[in-house]
Amino acid sequence: MNNFGYTITRDRQIDFDKLPRDIYRELCQKEPSVKACISCGTCGATCSAAQFTDFSLRKYILLLRRGDHKEVAQNIDKCMFCGKCQLACPMGVNTRNVIHSIQQIITSNLITLNENAGI
Amino acid sequence: MKIEGKKRLWQDYQKEIATDNYFYARSCIRQNFFPASEKTFLRVMREELNKDVYEDPRHTTCSGIVYHSDLVTMDTTMTVIARQFSLMTESGRKNYVPSCITSFGLYTEVLEMWEHFPELETKAREMLWKATGREFEKPENVAHASDIIYKFRNEIASRGKFRLVNHRTGQPLRGVEHIGCHYSKMFPHKGVGGAEYPYVLVGMIEAFGGEVVDYPERRHCCGFGFRQYVVKANRGFSISSSRKKFESMAPYKPDFILTNCPGCPYFLDRWQYAISEMEGVTYGENGYGIPVLTYEELAGLVLGYDPWDLGLQTHQVSVEPLLEKMGIPYNPATKYLGAQGQDLGRPEKPSVLKVY
Amino acid sequence: MKHVVVIGGGVAGMEASAKLSEMGVAVSIVEKADKLGGKLNRWDRLFPNSRPASDLLAKLQSGMGKDIRKYVNAEVSSVRQSLKQFDIALSNGEDFKADAILISTGFDVFDAHRKEEYGYGIYDNVITSADLEKTFRKGETLKTASGKKPQRVGIIHCVGSRDEKAGNNYCSKVCCITAVKQAIEIKEQNPEAEVFCFYMDLRMYDRHFETIYKEAQVKHGIQFIRGRLSEAFENADGSVMLKAEDTLLGKPLKINVDMVVLMAGMVPSSGNRVKEQLNLTVAEDGFFNVADAHYESSGTNVPGVFVAGACTGPKTMENTINEARSAALAIKEYLR
Amino acid sequence: MLVFDWFVLPFTLGLVYLVVTLLVKYFRWVKNLPVDEFAKVKKGVLSTKTFSAIREVFLESLLHRKIFKVNPLLGYMHTSLAFGWFLLILIGNWESRIFYHGHVSPPYVPIFFRFFNPHPVGFKLEAMFSFLMDLTLLVVLSGVTLAWLKRMRSRFFGMKKTTVLHMGDRFALASLWFIFPMRFLAESFTSGAYGGGHFLTANSGAFFAGFLPVESLVYPAWWAYSLALGTFFVALPMSRYMHIPTEIVLIFLRKYGVSEQSIFTSYTQVEINSCSRCGICIDPCQLASSANIRGVQSVYHLQSIRNCAVDNDKSLNCLMCGRCDNVCPVGIDIASIRKANRKQQAAQKENVYRYVPEGNAAKADVIFFAGCMTHLQPSVKKAMTGLLKHAGISYWFMDESGSVCCGRPLMLAGKEAQARELMANNKAKIVASGAKLFVTSCPICYKVFKEEYGLNIEVMHHSEYLLQLVESKKILVNRQDVKAVYHDPCELGRGAGIYAQPRQLLKSVVSLQPVSQDKENALCCGGSLANIKISNPERKMITADAVSVLTANNPDVLVTGCPMCKRTFAQASSVRVLDIAEVLSGALVLKQPTALIKVKNEERLAIQPVLIR
């Protein structure tokens, strides 16, 4: 292939129809309270991990809703599990089980995830 | 699709297009990209439609290309445009017809500004006077050259020798249209059919017997974007935009792409080659590209002009598949001969994209 | 006996007429449509409690006694102030004198054609909230143009509201909750369908609204995407591709849906000829000014002319009814 | 001379199967113990521990002393069945041995002695043995009746819930219920037909003979008895009755010092097979009593491990409050098994917290670590720092500007490798500070710092430390006219055994009132971080019940020593909820600055005592 000195970048666009959303569906089964998340960001503001890194449960829930799991898989283990987010969440989301379930699902789907990794 | 809905909308976006006595302003880059297109416009207007089209050899760039590359100020642009108008005034014409979409957009923009801020017009007149001692009148009508072809599309069709119809099956050929962003996206009421569902090219394709297909990224920019192409480091943005359009239109299997802008046909044509070299992907049938035409080239084909006189050999994507569908005869032997019959040489064969 | 002419026989007009009549005032109500009830006639079920619209209409109708003179299929063709009275002529030729006028001309639904990029009237499967309500009212299930059950529905908030391009900078107030109500109703009809609401802000300001919103998310799995629709495109199969930005992720998003429902907002009623004849002032948004935004929301800049309901800005049914009663009281006081 | 009849075969074959199966299993389990644990067994076998184990086997496996303590009726049921059956075998063997003059005979002979010798003429001890056997049988039958009643109506036993049965258990249970009634019938029919028996079987035999053809029923009845026994023996290893023999093994191993590890070992197998599924652990579980969550309690969790059918709900839906550990009559180390199970299920990952900066340590005598939960309770933080300043302590507030979690929540979720990574980060800072004492206001943190960090300095809960400060007069407090109740946080009380210090501390400032369920029996607040699965509404139900128990006598204030408990209660309690540090801070007596204690006046003013009523 020829290199003309510039590259073709892939669309940043979230293509809803092409991305797999079965992980979010499985997450809803494991922890239905995740459906109540309204992306307010309280969790991220109190997060122990977010002091040092850009860990954001709000964002990861959204990414899974859109089917973009790559960033989530890379980061979800950064959670310290301290539980502050759960106490802070105004919508009663069981945030720790959300994270625990994401970790479980992602571990069990690791091979499939690598195959269609990211957008 | 409710076609009556579109028709209703098109009625809201009808513009006045002068019918004769035009002052024609050429495009800077088309003369390099598709040199025969402007010649074809003049030929159609003068020979087929017997119109008066005046060209002044002293006219210059409208400065749009540098304006959009952020290299000149608005004052410079207004003065340059004022000078163009003064040449038109001097010729006694009142109908200004630019060949370039960006020029058309810029003239429209400047005229709108003068409308809303008369002091700017006064300032432009002063600056022109100080610089050149010239005066000008504003044009009564500004129409893009594609508006003119659109206006006379039915006349052209009735004089035409060929139609946008597959001559073997009798099925209309499928075209996708792409208007230049500066045609109506800034001032929807200045474009035929508006910005969302522009009609100018659709009208031509319909009049010439073809069928227009919509595709999701129809509204998306071709990717030229001035700075995006001119600065090499940004060139990836340009080709990525074009690729987005190709990916979106390819499933609809268009027979051709019709454009009305200097940059669009160029980039939609050349990037098909570049993408094929970079990624090994082609978008037309059987490894060829999707032929890209300017509206003048299309009108010329319909009127039976020799494809090589229309400059179609300068396209990167071979137009022969389209010619064959339309039943237009062409001589491969003369494809790369100059006006005096001299051999111009042959372009190198691309490694992936198939060409004739 | 004092005589009040109520212009506009919708929710506000009916309730005000009923109360004025109860207080012993002679009332004439003028309605341009062929029956009273206004936009309420077009609703199937009302938020926040899903009660049938016909139920509320019947309640309003029960107040429209014999004493109230009703003129339907009629418009005010001219109105003139003479001393402390108004001379009013109707399009049907009748004319009479009034001691006070109540304007309850309501609103028009925003013409969604004006948002060209959304394809209303052009794409087969783009409808408005009013169209959807009509479908529900007829007891029909929502179907695509080709008669199939939609598997995915996109609901677009703020169509013609909070939009400088559409000329309406204000919020139409009821669309957010209507969107949630209709989204739930779509899910109730067709539980397998996926429903997406595209919003700029969710304005769940009133009592119960937040509960319904949460129910929509948790119970019905309706997804809310913060981002305004920028353009819609019709695919070859009639489905519609929507482009928006997922603003909470900061990424553009595209999605194909089988149907699009545009939450058309409220615009000032176009048929208000009385405005000029009475020298009534309107605000920038085109709705009538009131005498005192806090204390005298029924009065106008012209003594003897009162306003109630959505002609002074978007509002809910209960606010409209409350305003109608308050206007009736204000008129009664004025006539004393 | 060998007596034999074909009907003894079901029993004999069943018994052989059972004995072989058990020997193979136990041999494997013991052999597969971790090396260190196996060494303990080898060392213990020839020590006095063996005798002590035998004693415990007698007391627990046969007499069920612990169940007696919890519930006498339930205890009698177990004792009557276990000890009664044991006596039947024992007395039967004596009888047979004496009758056959000490000849070694197959095991079926004493069991079916009455069939072979219905009315042994000339056996001098017949009357005594018949009486003893009848009496024992009667006791066993009463046990069977009670078991039957328990199955029908557990409330009869003062139990709210009994366990739900599964297929294998039903089979074993059915055969077990058959055994003794069949023996009773077989002996009665034999007596009715051929005489013999004593007060029970002789009378019932005569009774049956009155209207039944007992002679022709004798043989079928003995067949049925043998079949029931054989079936039970075959079903036993697959059923909960496996606990009967396994508990004996467990008692021995435990006496030798074998214990649960952080992962499953064959000792775990012994423990889960020792669970009799008595269901005693269900009643203290607040998930069941307050939130109506069923099927996740320890008995079901252990069962699911045994059946290799653990799901998220069973392993994660547990507060790990330790209330069930407290009551298990078999003494199974439920909490350790659950932790090991969670660890087994969770992915162990390393290097996931590389983003956490190493951080700088400040030199100080005392470290104060608030912990994540305290950070959500600024009033506790303020009280603690105020008290420390007031006492003039040179301390370093280790997580003042945001904390790195202690690792306990990760541990509780089974993510041990991850927890160790955070722990290493914290530990390095603690060591670098050179402090001699580590104080935390969070029992969750306390437990892990104390037990898992391996620190060479003392670790204290703030209630312990504050008590020290009060006793050494570094903090002077006034008694307040306040009625308070104290809530034992699970991690501090049952978790770490700290009951006395907070009470002693509180008694110095308030009048402490009793609570109906406290110390070992204290309730969980419901907020537990250990439960990952429970929903918020369910948590609230647990909290509401706990609050109503704690505030039953209308105290002025509900005091606890855990920021998590405090927050949880505060949302549900109409009585004011305070941390022990806040109470103390409110009761502070302002001292004059002394030369020794250099505290700035502004800081002193910042901790003006506040009225806590």
Describe the structure.
The complex is a heterotetramer of chains A (119), B (356), C (336) and D (613). Helices cover 46% and strands 2% of the residues of chain A. Chain A has 7 helices and 1 strand. Chain A has helices spanning 22-30, 42-46, 57-66, 70-75, 84-88, 95-108, 110-115, and one strand spanning 14-15. In chain A, helix 1 crosses helix 6 (95-108). Chain A is globular. Chain B has 2 domains: 19-145, Glutathione S-transferase Yfyf (Class Pi), Chain A, domain 2 (Up-down Bundle), CATH 1.20.1050.140; 146-334, Rossmann fold (3-Layer(aba) Sandwich), CATH 3.40.50. In chain B, strand 7, helix 14 and strand 8 (292-294) form a beta-alpha-beta unit. In chain B, 48% of the residues are buried. Chain C has 336 residues and is of the alpha/beta class. Chain C folds into 2 domains: 3-106 and 269-335, FAD/NAD(P)-binding domain; 112-265, FAD/NAD(P)-binding domain (3-Layer(bba) Sandwich), CATH 3.50.50. Chain C has a 5-stranded parallel sheet, with helices on one face. In chain C, helix 4 runs parallel beside helix 5. The model of chain C has no long low-confidence stretch (mean pLDDT 95). By secondary structure, chain D is mainly alpha-helical. Chain D has helices at 8-31, 35-45, 49-62, 65-70, 72-99, 108-111, 113-116, 126-152, 167-194, 201-209, 214-235, 243-255, 266-274, 286-289, 298-306, 312-316, 323-327, 334-345, 371-375, 378-390, 408-412, 416-433, 443-451, 462-471, 500-507, 536-550, 563-570, 580-586, 601-606; strands at 366-369, 395-397, 437-440, 458-461, 483-487, 511-513, 557-560, 576-579. Chain D has a 4-stranded parallel sheet. Chain D has a 4-stranded parallel sheet with strand order 6-5-7-8, sandwiched between helices. In chain D, helix 1 (8-31) packs across helix 13 (266-274), helix 8 (126-152) runs antiparallel to helix 9 and helix 24 crosses helix 25. The radius of gyration of chain D is 31 Å and the shape is elongated. Mean pLDDT of chain D is 89; it is low at 592-613. Chains in contact: A-B, A-C, A-D, B-C. The interface between B and C is medium-sized, with 16 and 14 residues. Strand 1 of chain A pairs parallel with strand 17 of chain C, so a sheet runs across the interface.
